[in-house]
Amino acid sequence: FYSLAVRLVWAPQGLVSSSLTSVLFQRAAEEDDLSNLNLLVSGILSKMVWLATPVFVFLAWWSRDLFALFLGEQWRGAGVYAAILCAPALGLLLQGWMDRLLAVARALRVKFAIEAAYTTVGMTLLGASLYLSHNVPLSMGIFAAVTMLYHIAFLIAYYRVCQFPCVKLLHVGWQIVYVVFVTAVVFGSITLLLGNSLGMWLGLAALAVYYTIIACVRRKMTRPGGIREVSQPSIPFLL
Q1: pLDDT tens track for 21-64
Q2: Phi and psi of 231, rounded to 5°?
Q3: How far is CA 52 from CA 112, 167, 179, in A?
Q4: Which of 43, 44, 49 is nearest to 19 (CA)?
Q5: Model's pTM, two decimal places?
């Protein structure tokens, strides 16, 4: 169950990260001062939050039903691990594409320190929780929490090493909290009113409406020639 959940939840994030890494690395290699990339990095992070977070909340909320629907009832148990992995998968999406910034900044010692601490603490807590509780989902939840702290540590390291304003990163963090809260309230209300099965389809429809609104607003804010009309008001996820 865990192996299947990892492949399905983490693989798309790896593809996105690998496609952006080379682009950012090229930009970073051309800059004499990495702090000039602040607006680019913070802007991409903000857009990722508003575009990707609702999908992860949806997957975490209805993962068991989704696995049972598409792979068969015998795979419903994998949905538990998929829900647990959604948070660290989002963390991977947000920080994985900036991985080579530390190489450009010649700060690979920082990367090594974070990796070593994560491996030591994560595996120790995972082994201890498995030994003491014999509860695999609980142990994986603890490991997922450590993994989230690992991703946060990397984001902080990128901003400190590259001398980006940390207030920008804090702003991204508040955006994540806001989007997760609002999305969870919407999906929770749908579930209470309609139940899991029908609620899942209405939740999917709500996501479709959300992304349609984003696409329409983006289109209206862009002139026919492709130039964004900065004189028109913006909404948070388009900043």
Answers
A1: 888 888 888 888 888 888 989 999 999 999 999 999 999 999 98
A2: -75, -20
A3: 28, 22, 10
A4: 44
A5: 0.84
